[in-house]
Amino acid sequence: MSKKHLFKNFAVLSCAAMLLLSGCQSSPDTAKDSSQTPATNSSAETGAESNTDTNKDTNKDTNKDTNGDTDKTANTSAETGDNITVTDARGEISIPANPQKIVDISGNSDILSVLGYKVAGTANSDAYDYTKFPSYLEDVLEGASILGYSMQDTMDVEGIISLEPDLIIISTVQEKMYQQLSEIAPVVILELAQTDWKEDVKSVAGIMNKTAKADQWLSSYEEKALKIGEEIRSSYGEDTTYLALLASGGQIFIFDKAGIGSILYDDMGLKRPEGMPVQENISLPVVSYEGLAQIDADRILAIGTDEDLASLRENPVWKNMEPVKNGNVLELPSSPYFNQGYSCIGRSLFLDEASSLMEKLK
To answer: What is the Cα–Cα distance from 199 to 97, expressed in whole angstroms?
Structure first.
């Protein structure tokens, strides 16, 4: 998943299953208890298969570049033993100039991969099953040890020790572990942006002295997003509106400035529908079914578990909405698509399959 905003959103939409971000701990079992398992309806299965195929090719390419960069920097570190001083959320800290064995529990292992690092330990586990990687990060994180979920405030300390890291990266979520982890290796603590994922990429890159590489990756991403957005608008109309929602626990959450929504609107330039609530902070706006019916969307992407999507389909207000009656709803499984919108690699992979996903709509 993954980021601070991801946890806030996830905590809100499964409040019975997870505790709030402010210093509280969640357990892997809570997500399972709240029926948050991947959807398996026919539309969702099709999306998942498309996502998996795309991920394998793209992630292999990412890993090839990553491993090459990591090998070069690792050799330099081994030969020189140089340290650099960086500024994190707590102030200045000395870290290896070219770390060879990074443990990242901040949820930014995807960003580190883009910057040319392969982590030894990670907390980028699936929000719906903490024991595995999200499908879109399986290749990138292959071989890494799962130490927890990035929005938990405690992790597997023994697992971290066993990896013998030369650098540990945490976020403010795990700040209470700082002193304990500092006895193992230098610890960088990150303060993550609320809704601007690009700022997170730049922040991590700045600390790791990889700003140029981050800028290059972001530029390539932005160019790809605009190109695919133009293709979709050309195929389905400049004025066609799109709505991305999450069905969870009987509630409807609207993606606007975060997750899949920000890919559609901010990155691809697709049109927001009239009547859509504006996201004012890190939490996803919640609407009633009656409020949802007032949103004038032409096409809907509905994300949820198998159970939540089944409940959505049975709601009489939902059944009477024009996009639903016209067959313009695409159902996507919450794993991987919920997390995916909060990951830089996940967003890029979503772009790769966006056109084929849109073809499934009428």
So the answer is: 22
